[in-house]
């Protein structure tokens, strides 16, 4: 489903983001990425949907190379991938509802989107997504008037609203208390199991990763440290990932 | 261009060096339209450029425009002058003056050499064209013999003179009377060094392709209004016009010559 | 769907429909008031074309004279822009709602500056000539005032648009207002600051007609003269050179801004870093100091003369405060005339701007070529002074407000698109990213990310244009459509200060009322 | 040291931030605040240094009421309190070093700060703070070019650079892997013990709170749920905090 071949990302011709990454993730997998701060986790995730362009290597989605795709085709690929940003990236002056509805934009024609002509089903999806993250009571509030955890949940709802085949989530529970975080993770688990949605998730909390993911990938200084089934990851390996 | 219009468009451009601010052209349009039996639509512009262009394209049928504008309209679009307005003294022309401070030691034009002179602005007929031509006629080389600036207004020229910022100011006659409230000391403190040639008054100009018959109608109409007691009063009070005399193109040759002397390149289509 | 939810969605749709309808009604009504007439415009095309044709043959022999004047203007405009922008920075800080040390400043100063902005150049000229006589010095002061007022307005809006959080982070360490300015706001608005500087420089060059009024000549004066002599070949030369100059300034602005974005690279030790950051900071006052020294060298005035001028200026202002109420009927008539032209032009320009900015802004434009083409067209629109377009349209459609409204619409479109597309270009990449990832295209990013995020900026730019359009409408007096603006011009020429006072007051009131109304509308809809 | 008396914060006349909070924190305490997302933790912290103004109640610092202080005096109070924002709130266009140096602004005159005339000791402090959080190699990088965790550490360094008497930290380790997070928490512990710096910290991770804090305060819907010594907090209480 997702395949990276020899992918290297360098920022501003200087800082290495990730280096020579080879990776294959199959449909329906639940993959956790761990590694110390600045290790390249976010970069890796952003490379999968080409928000950052690799200087070297190829990215395949569903067996199709997307690295040099034209914009229109890339859009089609992207609308099937939900992305949760580490810093949420909400449009702060828009309402929660509008932020979540943005998840549907990929399916709107330019004309419809210009006049804000979302379909009724889009509204239903948005509400469902917000209920899923427990924010239905903040639906009309401006995004900049939310608490940190609430913003994060809006970002998640937006990705869910896309009805994606793949979810790429960058530290999606970092600002949530363990209870709310668990609700979200359980939901991810549910859709992963029931709907075979592929989930790739960056987690700084190893315990969460071990609890939910089938497979753990560790990055260190932009390079792949290990890529193992969750069962095979022991304390020693974890220690190594953060050294 | 267009034939037989059901409405005549009249443009009015007050002269910046005139004595009066034009309030409303409506009453004049009303009178004229009664006089010639065709509706007249009137408007005032602050500058002649629009009106002259309108005369060229047919958007304006006739206008009250300054003399220099007539010359332009004539050479660009073959517009024709039909009347010239008369002033308070019944004359069809006016002139501008050179003002100096009393006791400034400037008693003759030769004394201006090396002094600071304020013209009004480079596009003003009475404030620049004629006075500058006058000096040129006296043998002055403007760039070398005097030190000139543009004041930006007749009033400002006077003010600069009074403040001692310049030694000579060229203004319309007589700016000191018109602004006696603002500059009460002007009449005592300054004196007239001399005058320029006469400049024709505001002209009534029709577009070049107007039918002779209509031209005649308008001309008669305006002349009648001026004689009419009510109309005469109106012209006097609203526009500071004390009557008209018939005009011919050659009355404006003085402008053309002056322009030529000042190297202003008027396109000549004749 | 649940009922409350449905209700809200419907309510939202009704609200946008209502907003749309109000705008359309306003547009149609003001279109009706300016006598919009497609047939007339269509029929007038040959006449308009005829005049434009006369500009097809620029008089290249004229370039020499133009260049001399242009350089003269540039020199003055440059110094004035530096000063104006520099003065506007602290003043912007004092008057922006989110940075002011006390709420009194915005309350007192903002109306004052609005009032000052409505004051036409002619009045500044009259005052400055009284105070400082005539020449380059009052010329610089005149342009500095323009630069100051314009950039202050732009800054203040921009500062108010800065998110509270980034200011909070400075407040939290106990920083005072100036420190918040220096450390928090300047870095954020650095690119904007440069953009404003170049915008102001450009405005100064173009509005250099003021210079003629204070005896400093410049390019404005010869443009006016050529127009008065109907020398369209010369005007064409002038516009061409102006166009190139503006294009050049644009390019320079772009290069400098891009450079300033990248300036952070390549420090390898602390000493060099400290040295360069200090150098950067010190260069600002140094530049200002140089300008001040330059200006000082241009002063040609005795103290006694200045005192005399002070008295004259004082009488002038005193007389303005004695409002001549008998002039009220004409004033109201003038307001009515200007209002609709201005409203029409601003709405048309505002709508065009939303579309054109999408095409012109680098970060959202569908293609690079389109962006460049649009910018090119925008620059042409901006280069043509409204007075010349007005005369062109006048030839086609004759007297009445229509020609003026058309001319002003084009100009507004040009200026507003320039300003807003720069706002769009300066938005953080995050906003775009947030929509790209869901499979949105650039139009989606623009419509759903950037517009909502920059709506306050857009609205304030729109209001700013509305305000200046009321002022600009005075030059439409040339074609008999000047409204209150040309009344003002005439009365200033006649030194009827009492009438001028009334006219100014009503213009200021008008602007404030419009401001208030749009504020209320904003509150309801945004 | 910190005392809140009956403090209520309401946003936009509508949303309750915190309600009727009474609280006293002594010098040298290490207090953790927990509670579910949107519970009012950030609001509480921001009220302590008056970044949000209470509609009711009084805030005392060192026995002095600061609720109605003029700006100049408030600045003096604030410069002794380091604040780590939940969303970091860095000046993204400034360098890491400049962001950290901002912590010294409270001690500079306007003139000095305009010309960037930080003292040599300020630079030393900034460098030390950056070393403490492990970011000395990113010192000249622009803040918007950092990874999530790196940004968070810059925010912490900035607060440290203030040499504060009180540190108010809003989820300061939410985006840090457990190793880096531990380094930060241990550092907090160290300065708390050695220098008697009062620390109030919002944590969504209860285990962290239990491990480091002397005292735990739980908020729920803006109200004080409990305020107990760490030893007294049992599982049941924790469950209650997130219900
Ligand atoms: N600027 C604001 N304007 C309006 N309401 C706000 C604002 N900030 C927070 N709120 C609201 O106040 C309540 C408390 O928010 P607060 O940020 O204190 O929560 P929190 O406990 O920090 O949550 P989290 O763990 O998600 O960060 C929430 O309901 C939130 O939506
Ligand atoms: N926009 C950018 N420009 C330049 N460098 C960047 C940019 N984003 C990230 N980097 C650098 O690339 C490297 C990898 O960053 P990345 O964000 O992928 O780390 P991460 O593993 O997500 O870390 P964290 O857990 O802290 O979020 C870091 O050294 C970072 O400083
Ligand atoms: Mg990251
Ligand atoms: Mg919070």
UniProtKB/TrEMBL annotation, chains A, D:
<dbReference type="InterPro" id="IPR003439">
    <property type="entry name" value="ABC_transporter-like_ATP-bd"/>
</dbReference>
<feature type="domain" description="ABC transporter">
    <location>
        <begin position="2"/>
        <end position="241"/>
    </location>
</feature>
<keyword id="KW-0813">Transport</keyword>
<dbReference type="InterPro" id="IPR027417">
    <property type="entry name" value="P-loop_NTPase"/>
</dbReference>
<dbReference type="InterPro" id="IPR003593">
    <property type="entry name" value="AAA+_ATPase"/>
</dbReference>
<dbReference type="InterPro" id="IPR017871">
    <property type="entry name" value="ABC_transporter-like_CS"/>
</dbReference>
<keyword id="KW-1278">Translocase</keyword>
<dbReference type="GO" id="GO:0005524">
    <property type="term" value="F:ATP binding"/>
</dbReference>
<dbReference type="GO" id="GO:0015416">
    <property type="term" value="F:ABC-type phosphonate transporter activity"/>
</dbReference>
<dbReference type="GO" id="GO:0005886">
    <property type="term" value="C:plasma membrane"/>
</dbReference>
<dbReference type="GO" id="GO:0016887">
    <property type="term" value="F:ATP hydrolysis activity"/>
</dbReference>
<dbReference type="InterPro" id="IPR015854">
    <property type="entry name" value="ABC_transpr_LolD-like"/>
</dbReference>
<dbReference type="Pfam" id="PF00005">
    <property type="entry name" value="ABC_tran"/>
</dbReference>
<keyword id="KW-1003">Cell membrane</keyword>
<protein>
    <submittedName>
        <fullName>Phosphonate transport system ATP-binding protein</fullName>
    </submittedName>
</protein>
<dbReference type="InterPro" id="IPR012693">
    <property type="entry name" value="ABC_transpr_PhnC"/>
</dbReference>
<keyword id="KW-0067">ATP-binding</keyword>
<keyword id="KW-0472">Membrane</keyword>
<keyword id="KW-0547">Nucleotide-binding</keyword>
<keyword id="KW-0918">Phosphonate transport</keyword>
TrEMBL record, chain C:
<keyword id="KW-0812">Transmembrane</keyword>
<feature type="transmembrane region" description="Helical">
    <location>
        <begin position="500"/>
        <end position="521"/>
    </location>
</feature>
<dbReference type="InterPro" id="IPR000515">
    <property type="entry name" value="MetI-like"/>
</dbReference>
<keyword id="KW-0813">Transport</keyword>
<dbReference type="GO" id="GO:0005886">
    <property type="term" value="C:plasma membrane"/>
</dbReference>
<keyword id="KW-0472">Membrane</keyword>
<feature type="transmembrane region" description="Helical">
    <location>
        <begin position="475"/>
        <end position="494"/>
    </location>
</feature>
<feature type="transmembrane region" description="Helical">
    <location>
        <begin position="76"/>
        <end position="97"/>
    </location>
</feature>
<feature type="transmembrane region" description="Helical">
    <location>
        <begin position="193"/>
        <end position="223"/>
    </location>
</feature>
<feature type="transmembrane region" description="Helical">
    <location>
        <begin position="376"/>
        <end position="394"/>
    </location>
</feature>
<feature type="transmembrane region" description="Helical">
    <location>
        <begin position="339"/>
        <end position="361"/>
    </location>
</feature>
<dbReference type="InterPro" id="IPR005769">
    <property type="entry name" value="PhnE/PtxC"/>
</dbReference>
<comment type="similarity">
    <text>Belongs to the binding-protein-dependent transport system permease family.</text>
</comment>
<feature type="transmembrane region" description="Helical">
    <location>
        <begin position="235"/>
        <end position="255"/>
    </location>
</feature>
<protein>
    <submittedName>
        <fullName>Phosphonate transport system permease protein</fullName>
    </submittedName>
</protein>
<keyword id="KW-1003">Cell membrane</keyword>
<dbReference type="GO" id="GO:0015416">
    <property type="term" value="F:ABC-type phosphonate transporter activity"/>
</dbReference>
<keyword id="KW-1133">Transmembrane helix</keyword>
<feature type="transmembrane region" description="Helical">
    <location>
        <begin position="275"/>
        <end position="296"/>
    </location>
</feature>
<feature type="domain" description="ABC transmembrane type-1">
    <location>
        <begin position="335"/>
        <end position="518"/>
    </location>
</feature>
<feature type="transmembrane region" description="Helical">
    <location>
        <begin position="12"/>
        <end position="32"/>
    </location>
</feature>
<dbReference type="InterPro" id="IPR035906">
    <property type="entry name" value="MetI-like_sf"/>
</dbReference>
């Amino acid at each position: 489903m997702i395949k990276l071949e020899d992918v290297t990302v360098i920022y501003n011709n200087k800082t290495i983001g990730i280096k020579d990454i080879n990776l294959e993730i199959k449909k329906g997998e639940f993959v956790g990425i761990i590694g110390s701060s600045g290790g390249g986790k976010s970069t890796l995730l952003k490379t999968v949907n080409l928000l950052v362009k690799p200087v070297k290597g190829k990215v395949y989605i569903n067996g199709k190379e997307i690295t040099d795709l034209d914009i229109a085709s890339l859009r089609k690929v992207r609308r099937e991938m939900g992305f949760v940003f580490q810093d949420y990236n909400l449009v702060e002056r828009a309402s929660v509802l509008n932020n979540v509805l943005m998840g549907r934009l990929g399916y709107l024609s330019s004309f419809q989107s210009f006049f804000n002509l979302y379909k009724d089903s889009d509204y239903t999806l948005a509400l469902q997504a917000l209920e899923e993250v427990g924010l239905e009571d903040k639906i009309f509030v401006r995004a900049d008037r939310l608490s940190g955890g609430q913003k994060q949940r809006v970002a998640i709802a937006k990705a869910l609203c896309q009805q994606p085949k793949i979810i790429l989530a960058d530290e999606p529970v970092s600002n949530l208390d363990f209870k709310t975080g668990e609700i979200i993770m359980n939901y991810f688990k549910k859709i992963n199991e029931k709907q075979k949605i592929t989930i790739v998730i960056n987690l700084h909390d190893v315990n969460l990763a071990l609890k939910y993911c089938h497979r753990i990938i560790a990055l260190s200084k932009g390079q792949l440290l290990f890529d193992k089934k969750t069962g095979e990851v022991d304390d020693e390996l974890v220690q190594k990932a953060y050294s | 261009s267009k034939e037989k219009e059901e409405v005549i468009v009249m443009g009015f451009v007050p002269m910046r060096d005139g004595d009066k601010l034009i309030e409303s052209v409506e009453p004049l349009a009303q009178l004229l339209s009664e006089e010639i039996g065709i509706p007249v639509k009137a408007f005032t512009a602050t500058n002649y450029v629009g009106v002259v262009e309108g005369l060229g394209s047919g958007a304006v049928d006739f206008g009250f425009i300054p003399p220099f504008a007539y010359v332009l309209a004539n050479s660009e679009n073959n517009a024709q002058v039909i009347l010239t307005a008369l002033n308070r003294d019944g004359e069809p022309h006016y002139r501008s003056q050179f003002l100096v401070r009393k006791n400034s030691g400037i008693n003759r034009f030769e004394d201006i050499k090396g002094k600071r002179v304020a013209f009004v602005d480079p596009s003003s007929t009475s404030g620049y064209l004629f006075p500058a031509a006058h000096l040129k006629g006296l043998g002055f080389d403007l760039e070398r013999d005097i030190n000139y600036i543009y004041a930006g207004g007749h009033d400002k020229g006077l003010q600069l003179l009074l403040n001692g910022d310049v030694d000579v100011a060229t203004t319309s006659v007589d700016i000191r009377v018109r602004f006696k409230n603002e500059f009460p000391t002007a009449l005592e403190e300054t004196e007239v060094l001399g005058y320029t040639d006469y400049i024709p008054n505001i002209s009534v100009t029709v577009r070049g392709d107007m039918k002779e018959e209509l031209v005649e109608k308008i001309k008669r109409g305006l002349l009648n209004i001026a004689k009419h007691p009510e109309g005469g009063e109106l012209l006097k009070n609203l526009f500071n016009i004390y009557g008209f005399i018939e005009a011919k193109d050659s009355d404006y040759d003085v402008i053309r010559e002056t322009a030529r002397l000042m190297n202003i390149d008027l396109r000549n289509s004749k | 769907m649940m009922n409350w939810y449905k209700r809200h969605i419907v309510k939202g749709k009704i609200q946008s429909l209502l907003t749309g309808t109000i705008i359309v009604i306003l547009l149609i009504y003001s279109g009706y008031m300016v006598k919009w007439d497609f047939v007339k415009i269509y029929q007038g095309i040959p006449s308009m074309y005829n005049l434009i044709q006369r500009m097809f043959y620029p008089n290249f022999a004229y370039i020499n004279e133009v260049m001399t004047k242009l350089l003269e203007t540039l020199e003055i405009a440059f110094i004035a822009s530096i000063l104006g922008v520099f003065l506007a920075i602290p003043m912007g800080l004092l008057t922006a709602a989110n940075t002011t040390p006390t709420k009194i400043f915005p309350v007192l100063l903002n109306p004052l500056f609005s009032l000052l902005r409505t004051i036409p150049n002619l009045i500044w000229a009259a005052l400055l000539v009284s105070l400082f006589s005539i020449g380059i010095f009052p010329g610089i002061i005149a342009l500095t005032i323009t630069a100051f007022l314009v950039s202050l307005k732009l800054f203040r809006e921009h500062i108010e648009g800065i998110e509270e959080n980034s200011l909070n982070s400075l407040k939290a360490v106990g920083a005072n207002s100036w420190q918040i300015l220096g450390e928090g706001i300047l870095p954020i608005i650095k690119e904007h600051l440069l953009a404003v500087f170049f915008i102001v420089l450009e405005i100064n060059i173009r509005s250099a007609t003021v210079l003629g009024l204070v005896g400093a000549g410049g390019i404005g004066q010869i443009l006016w003269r050529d127009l008065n002599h109907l020398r369209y070949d010369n005007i064409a030369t002038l516009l061409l050179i102006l166009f190139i100059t503006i294009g050049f300034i644009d390019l320079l602005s772009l290069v400098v801004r891009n450079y300033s974005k990248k300036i952070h690279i390549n420090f390898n030790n602390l000493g060099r870093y400290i040295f360069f950051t200090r150098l950067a900071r010190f260069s600002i006052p140094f530049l200002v100091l140089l300008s001040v020294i330059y200006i000082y060298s241009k002063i040609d005035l005795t103290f006694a003369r200045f005192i005399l001028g002070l008295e004259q200026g004082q009488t002038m202002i005193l007389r303005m405060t004695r409002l001549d109420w008998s002039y009220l009927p004409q004033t109201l008539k003038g307001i009515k005339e200007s209002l609709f032209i201005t409203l029409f032009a601003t709405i048309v320009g505002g709508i065009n701007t939303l579309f054109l900015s999408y095409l012109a802004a680098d970060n959202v434009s569908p293609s690079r070529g389109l962006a460049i083409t649009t910018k090119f067209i925008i620059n042409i629109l901006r280069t043509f002074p409204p007075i010349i377009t007005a005369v062109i349209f006048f030839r086609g459609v004759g007297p009445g407000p229509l020609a003026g409204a058309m001319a002003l619409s084009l100009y507004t479109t040009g200026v507003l698109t320039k300003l807003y597309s720069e706002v769009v270009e300066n938005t953080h990449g995050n906003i775009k990213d947030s929509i790209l990832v869901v499979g949105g295209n650039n139009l989606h990013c623009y419509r759903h990310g950037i517009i909502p995020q920059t709506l306050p900026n857009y609205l304030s730019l729109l209001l700013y244009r509305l305000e200046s359009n009321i002022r600009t409408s005075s030059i439409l007096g040339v074609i008999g459509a000047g409204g209150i603006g040309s009344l003002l011009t005439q009365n200033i020429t006649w030194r009827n200060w009492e009438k001028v006072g009334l006219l100014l007051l009503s213009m200021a009131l008008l602007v404030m009322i419009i401001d208030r109304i749009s504020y209320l509308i904003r509150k309801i809809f945004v």
